[in-house]
Amino acid sequence: MFDYSMAEIGNIVVMQAFSGLSLFSVLLLMALGLAIIFGQMGVINMAHGEFMAIGAYTTVFLSRVAETYGIVNYYFLFAIVAAFIVAFIIGYIVEFALIRHLYKRPLDTLLATWGLSLVMQQIFRSTFGAKEVSAVLPEWLMGSFQPTPDIDIPINGVFVLVLAAVVTLGVFLFMFRSRWGLRVRATVQNRVMAGAVGINTKKVDRVTFALGCGIAGVAGAAFTTIASTGPTTGSLYIVDSFMVVVFGGAASVLGTIASAFGIAQAQSILQFFMTSSMGKVATLMVIVGILMMRPEGLFASKVRK
Amino acid sequence: MSKTNRRQFITKAGALMGAMLAAGIVSGSAYAADFATAKVNTTKLAVTDTTVKVGILHSSTGTMAISETGSIQAEKLAIAQINAMGGVLGRKIEVVQEDGASDWPTFAEKSKKLLEKDKVAAVFGCWTSASRKAVLPVFEKDNGLLFYPTFYEGLEQSKNVFYTGQEATQQILAGLDWIAKEKKAKTFYLIGSDYIWPRTSMKIARKHIEQHLGGKVVGEEYIALGDTQFGSVINKIKLKKPDVIYAAVVGGSNVAWFKQLNAAGLNSKKQNMLTISVTEDEVLGIGGENLEGFYSAMKYFQSLKNANNEKFVAEFKKMWGPKAVIGDVTQAAYLGPWLWKAAVERAGSFDVDKAVAALPGYEFKEAPEGYVKVDSNHHLESKLRVGKWLANGQAEVVYESDLIKPDPFPKGYQ
């Protein structure tokens, strides 16, 4: 390490810090939707990754449309909203058709949603083809921001970071500052009582699930800026998503944020000093170790069992 | 239906069949008649007087479908062209297509079905080394014949397999020599996905760089398959400032790798990169603008300028649509049926033993990549090309080697 000048090391520290933040925002976006569905409803949604893929495909599709009309520079924000809406609607339908019949059988939801993920993958493959596709990105999302000639901050990373912050803030406002959030929290804490005071708990379930799926769609749209989209893209994200949620403590959105931050920083730093695959192994070992001491995750919910 | 009608129908059908038979004898089967079925097929393969069955075994579903679809298309095109020329020993080729579903045990099971139930005379198939390793025992036990299209890590040679792609040394050595000379490169950073092909390839590359080029490997890195986060790796590369990044990243990671590299400011103006895992197929996903100026070492590029290739590209697009692109492996897959045809015709027999014995030494001059020759070690003697990627997703060939003999068990590189 010492055959480099201080300036070089300083530049790398800045870029490395950003790469940790960037990984943090990616993990957070992945996990937020899942944290809502798994944390608030106890549903293990194995098709979470496929809802991300829906968002990503929506973006790719819109980018093609935008390309034909020559409006590539403007479509992206609109595509994120569209990704949310499409994933929300499909989530709403899935809850109605499948999930609501399985609330009392958590292991069956795992199998059913896993089956759903396979079905969705094959639908993607038949509709969009087996080849991976990329969205055409607007000019302003490409390239890097250079505060000094030797520091490159990727713009797409900044974009994902900002988006993650906006979505997280939105979720917080929704959960803790809106009537809907109040109903959701009431239903989670005591379903029977919530029903007794006139909350339509079935409708709350449906909207909560659809909201989680919608956020997954936003995450998928954002990830088109860093990776490509294929039928099995979703399965790449599902393990990381669950890892973040479980490590953070299932019922806590704050836990999810802390966990995404911890995992991202650990992984990013370890990968710098070790090889990439060993960095990942070491991160997982740390997580397993901590979970052995705190089986409920970082932020255990203080709900009476 | 009344009695007369039915009788009329039978008479008409009989006449039609008679006419078809007669036509068969007059045209294509005149050739087949020279090769009596009993003589050209002594091992009970699915060969009749007019047809011969072959298998295509690739993944049309699952993760690998993205890569293997091109191979299926190329093999079907070759077979259609051979049939249009009158088939093999006067027999039309019938295809039995099975789906390996990106699952290695499924590949083994389906190859067993093709060989034991369908009795196919040859199989064109497999893509990953894992799938090839899974079917290999089946082909050796049932004495089948496999044409395998993918460039791979070498270290294998079977009587029952012909390898139409490059083994590792054919793809690696000449490419490294070129970039070391052209860019005066001394320091190399090796990066690949974490499985057998990149690891074996990098081992060979490292030996070559250190022992023959007098260069230095300043970093060697393997990324878990499917990983899409390269931030830390890119920072390490920026710190080490290698003359050349030598890359073998595959699948979804590949796209993320190039996108992030560009976003981090490492484009071809600042950094040389030679990759052995990017063909025209991958460029579709990565986007030409992210690759522009980087180099790939392959034996085939769609943009190759020769009459064979121009014809091949035109017919491929005619069959599979104007947007179809052709990568290195797709071209190698296209060679399979043609080489099998040559083997059978040189042997005058569909028997696997005779066809296998007849093929080495064969020179195929109509290959889209140009001249290839089948070596006695069942690999192909071929050239290596280095292509420089353009923004439109095609490559400009900037270097072409001499013919390189295949060497699946390279001494001093293991």
Largest interface: A-B, 49 and 41 residues
Helix content of chain A: over 70%
The helix/strand class of chain A is mainly alpha
SSE order of chain B, one letter for each helix or strand: HHHEHEHEHEEHEHEHEHEHHEHHHEEEEE
Structural class of chain B: alpha/beta
* The named CATH superfamily of the largest domain in chain B: Response regulator
The succession of helices and strands of chain A, N to C, reads: HHHHEEHHHHHHH
For this structure, the CATH topology of the largest domain in chain B is Rossmann fold
Which second-level CATH architecture of the largest domain in chain B applies? 3-Layer(aba) Sandwich
How many DSSP helices of chain A?
11
Strand content of chain A: under 5%
Pfam family, one (chain B): Peripla_BP_5
Keywords (chain B): Signal
InterPro entries (chain B): ABC_urea-bd_UrtA (IPR017777), Peripla_BP_I (IPR028082), TAT_signal (IPR006311)
Organism (chain B): Methylobacillus rhizosphaerae
